[in-house]
Amino acid sequence: MSDNSTTSIMDLPTDPANGGNLNNNMSMNASELVQQQNMNVNSNAVSLDQSVINQIVNGLQQANLTGATQLPSRDIPLNTSNLTHDVNIQPNYIPPPPVNKEVIFQEDYIGNYEKATDMINDYNYKLENNNRLDDMYNEIQVPLLLAVLYFLFQLPIFRKYMFTYLPFLFSNDGNLNFNGYIFMSALFGIFYYLMNKIHQQFGGF
Length: 205
Fold this sequence. Notes:
Layout: E1 13-15, E2 20-21, H1 22-44, H2 50-66, H3 81-84, H4 116-154, H5 156-165, H6 178-202
Antiparallel strand pairs: 1-2
Helix pairs in contact: 4-6
């Protein structure tokens, strides 16, 4: 302590409970670490003197000269053709599909790719089928349309309306006269023409 009642930092204890100061703690910790390291090194080190090392080296050299370190000839394969001619060791080897009939069929996904000629043939086949269907539809549409019109013209309700609103087309017995046949034929043709035009405009019924 100095005269002005101040305390030096070095005089302050590091642990107030134990009352120790900084210098004592540092020196004690350092000595403990050095002692622990020396103990670890001594426990892990193997004591080999120069004579033991020389004996080991001489023993290895003599074993090498007598051939004791080499693999016995009975363990060395003499025929290596099975290794050099094995197709399985090739980098791009693909195993063939199984030939055994009991094995489930395995699809050859590499060989079964769709070729350009197959695609062209499929397209032509579909186009031919579509053309066949279009031709059949074009052939059947006119007779079908005429059959529907004939059916409508022969309905009793149609004849009843014609007799009610156009009686001059009928004779006294209720049948069509000559003018009635001409009118019905013209009306039939007009209806067919209109339905055909509607079909051409809208592409179908």
